[in-house]
Design goal:
This protein has 12 helices and 14 strands. The chain is of the alpha+beta class and 374 residues long.
């Protein structure tokens, strides 16, 4: 991946636009206002989490979210679950309403997305399950027959994990290379690295990279409980959010991607680190190895005192804590590292390199170094 961080004419890959929707607010300006206010906690008691088996009853919910006011085509909203709605909005905001190169050929536009595995809104199967229950137990024949008529026929379509990619590509006529990463919080950083490689190799002139997820509905939380996300002393505080960055070839001094590396830590399903929990030793080793690989790509004159912003559960400490204030939005956790770095540079005036790291629920790990292009 080191070769892909520079274009054929020696230019780097610059970050030229940002879109975000998270518990701190909707849009880049809302995120900046929250940052200036000292990043106060935005987690709130959420009625949908009132379940006896959950050790938490608070979550980070995007405030005042109304997809009809934020998305370009209302008729498509019924085909989008909350994560897809948020992700499509953030991607469109990052791209820009009126891009300066409106004549950019569709095949020179690309999108890379990190996503979760959310199925649908709360209680998708509730009515069908209750219909198949009786005093004698669960009737599989009834469940497989008449009970299915109680399901929304669009539930499976709404739950496709590449829907953010599909809707955004259609809206933007982005017909170039693209990919979708189901790697939890590591997915958006993997998307970032892949998009940089595509621009660096000359296949694209503009790309979007980021991710989206929503973990504030009951059916989103059941799979997390299955991998032990709520078993730790400091259980995961679920949240939702999305963030995307626009990438283009950049000139000297622009803010962009200096280094990237990804890998895999062999951890078991019950050993995934959560907020406040001690990371698995394998994750620690892989993070340090990938840090070394990513920093090896950074030109010596671009190095210096770095700022570390890490996803929840990543070892090695962090200089900026997002997760106590926003909760853990699953796959979007890696994506929210991008506006955090963007804002640290623009609001805090941090001019040194910024290191991002994220780990997914199955051991995927990614590290990126951002900073001024040489």
């Amino acid at each position: 991946m080191a070769q892909g961080l520079m274009t054929g004419d020696g230019r780097g890959v610059a970050m030229t636009g940002m879109g975000v929707a998270c518990p701190a607010g909707i849009g880049v300006n809302a995120f900046r206002d929250w940052w200036r206010a000292g990043r106060p906690s935005m987690t709130r008691v959420l009625s949908t989490l009132d379940e006896p088996w959950l050790p938490v009853d608070v979550a980070g919910e995007v405030p005042d979210w109304n997809p009809k006011k934020r998305l370009p085509e209302r008729k498509s909203i019924k085909l989008m679950n909350p994560a897809v709605q948020l992700g499509t909005f953030a991607a469109m905001e990052a791209w820009g309403v009126d891009p300066p190169d409106a004549t950019l050929p569709p095949e020179r536009r690309g999108i890379w997305v990190g996503c979760g595995t959310s199925v649908d809104e709360d209680n998708t199967f509730n009515d069908a399950i209750l219909d198949a229950l009786s005093d004698d137990g669960f009737d599989m024949k009834k469940w497989g027959g008449p009970s299915q008529d109680l399901l929304n026929p669009l539930w499976l379509v709404k739950g496709l994990t590449n829907n953010v990619l599909a809707f955004t590509a259609r809206y933007l006529r982005a017909m170039g290379p693209n990919d979708n990463f189901e790697a939890g919080a590591a997915g958006p950083l993997q998307a970032l690295g892949a998009a940089c490689e595509a621009i660096g190799s000359g296949r694209l002139d503009r790309a979007l990279a980021g991710g989206a997820d929503s973990l504030i509905r009951l059916e989103d939380l059941v799979p997390l409980a299955g991998i032990g996300a709520f078993d730790g002393k400091s259980p995961l505080v679920p949240a939702q959010g999305a963030a995307f960055v626009r990438l283009e070839p950049g000139t000297k001094g622009a803010f962009g991607v200096l280094g990237f590396a990804s890998g895999f830590a062999p951890v078991g399903p019950k050993e995934v680190p959560n907020v406040g929990a001690e990371p698995h030793a394998a994750v620690k080793r892989v993070v340090e190895r990938l840090r070394t690989q990513a920093w090896a790509q950074v030109p010596p004159k671009s190095r210096g005192a770095s700022l570390r912003i890490r996803g929840p559960g990543v070892p090695g400490g962090t200089d900026i804590d997002l997760w106590s204030a926003l909760g853990d939005p699953g796959a979007a956790a890696g994506a929210l590292l991008l506006p955090a770095a963007w804002t640290a540079r623009s609001i805090d005036k941090h001019r040194g390199p910024i290191e991002l790291a994220a780990v997914g629920p199955r051991g995927d790990v990614a590290v990126a170094v951002l900073g001024e292009l040489p």
